[in-house]
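Priority: medium. Attachment 1 of 2:
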C-alpha cells in the first residue's frame, strides 16, 4: 500500500521511522511519501494561509497549494482514497481502519490553523474523518493515528493472530494479560491461566472481556451488531 502524506509539518511524521511501520516499509509492504504542501505555493513568500472571508477566528489554509499538492500525487479515482482528518468528519474506528486497509493508495491531507478553504472538497473526492470528539491543533496527529491503525490491517504488517483477539475485534474490550514472573510483590497470575486447561482459559478470557466491557464501555454492548 502506498500512503502519501501532505502536510505543512513533515517533521511530525518521524514516528513512521520507528518500529513496526518502519519495518513494513523496509520490507516493501508499505510505502510512505511525505509531501510538503508549502513547496506547491505560488505565493512569492510560499504563504499557505490567509484570513477567512466573512471574518472569524484565525487563518485558513489556501486552496491553491492544496490543490497542486493533491494533484501531484492523485492517480486513478478507483484506486486512490483521499482522507482529510477533521473534527467535522465521521468517527474513525477499527472497522473503518480495516475497510481503508483494502485500498492500494491512500492520500492523507493534513489541515492546520483554523481549517481549509472549503472548495478543496468540491475539487477532489475527499472523505473527512475525525478521531474523536475533541479538537487538536492540526491534522498531523490524527493522520498519524489513522495511518498506524490502518497499517496494522495490511497483510504482513503484523501477525494475523494479533488482530483476532484484540479490543474491538469482536465488539468487546480485550481481557487482562500476564507474563513471567508468576509471582510479583505478592501478586499472583490468575490460577486458571497456568492450569493448562484450554477450555477453562478461553471461558475465563471471555468472562473477563465481557466484565471489562460492561464496566468501562457499556455502549459497545448496547451497540453490538448481531
Ligand atoms: N483535527 C483537529 N481535531 C481533529 C480530530 N478530532 N480528528 C481529526 N482531525 C482533527
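Attachment 2 of 2:
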Amino acid at each position: 500500500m502506498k500512503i502519501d502524506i501532505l502536510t505543512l509539518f513533515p517533521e511530525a511524521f518521524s514516528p513512521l521511522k520507528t518500529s513496526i511501520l518502519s519495518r513494513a516499509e523496509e520490507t516493501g509492504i508499505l510505502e510512505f511519501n511525505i509531501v510538503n504542501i508549502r513547496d506547491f505555493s505560488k505565493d512569492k513568500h510560499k504563504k499557505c494561509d490567509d484570513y477567512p472571508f466573512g471574518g472569524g477566528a484565525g487563518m485558513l489554509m489556501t486552496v491553491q497549494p492544496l490543490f497542486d499538492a493533491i494533484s501531484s500525487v492523485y492517480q486513478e479515482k478507483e484506486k486512490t482514497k483521499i482522507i482529510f482528518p477533521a473534527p467535522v468528519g465521521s468517527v474513525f474506528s477499527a472497522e473503518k481502519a480495516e475497510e481503508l486497509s483494502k485500498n492500494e493508495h491512500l492520500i492523507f491531507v493534513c489541515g492546520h490553523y483554523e481549517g481549509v478553504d472549503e472548495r478543496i472538497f468540491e475539487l477532489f473526492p475527499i472523505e473527512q474523518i475525525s478521531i474523536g470528539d475533541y479538537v487538536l491543533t492540526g491534522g498531523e496527529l490524527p493522520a498519524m493515528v489513522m495511518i498506524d491503525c490502518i497499517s496494522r490491517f495490511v497483510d504482513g504488517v503484523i501477525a494475523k493472530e494479533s488482530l483476532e483477539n484484540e479490543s474491538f475485534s469482536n465488539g468487546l474490550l480485550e481481557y487482562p494479560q500476564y507474563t513471567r514472573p508468576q509471582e510479583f510483590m505478592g501478586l499472583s497470575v490468575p490460577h486458571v491461566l497456568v492450569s493448562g486447561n484450554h477450555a477453562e482459559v478461553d471461558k475465563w478470557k471471555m468472562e473477563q472481556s465481557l466484565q471489562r466491557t460492561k464496566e468501562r464501555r457499556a455502549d459497545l454492548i448496547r451497540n453490538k451488531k448481531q
